[in-house]
Amino acid sequence: MSWFYLFIAGLFEVVWATFMKLSEGFSHLGYSIATFAGMLFSFLFLARATRQLPISLAYPVWTGIGALGTVIIGVILFGDRLSPLTWFFVALLLIGIIGIKLTAK
């Protein structure tokens, strides 16, 4: 269940980053509130996950899920353009997350 909590925490990382972009520097109240709510839930689920998982595994996976998800949202919703080399490194990030999960005890 801890890995599930960690995954949810990572998804909320994507949520708050997306709403932060939409808030346009916290100038839109609704998006700003959603940003802080996403942060809160992200931290709460991370805290729940670290009851069982070591922080040395949980933190990099949490940030990796957030980073990877935010890249995908940036490309899909905001039209961000990434070079092929950047996509290569995004793929390495995904491989790293999967590798940490597969090799964790």
From TrEMBL:
Keyword Glycoprotein tagged: no
UniProt KW Lyase keyword: no
InterPro entries: EmrE-like, Small_drug/metabolite_transptr, Small_multidrug_res
Principal location: membrane
GO cellular component: plasma membrane
Gene3D superfamilies linked to this entry: 1.10.3730.20
Keywords: Cell membrane, Membrane, Transmembrane, Transmembrane helix, Transport
Membrane topology: Multi-pass membrane protein
Location within or outside the cell: Cell membrane
GO molecular function, one term: transmembrane transporter activity
Spans through the membrane: 27-47, 59-79, 85-104
Protein family per UniProt: Belongs to the drug/metabolite transporter (DMT) superfamily. Small multidrug resistance (SMR) (TC 2.A.7.1) family.
Protein name per Swiss-Prot or TrEMBL: Small multidrug resistance protein
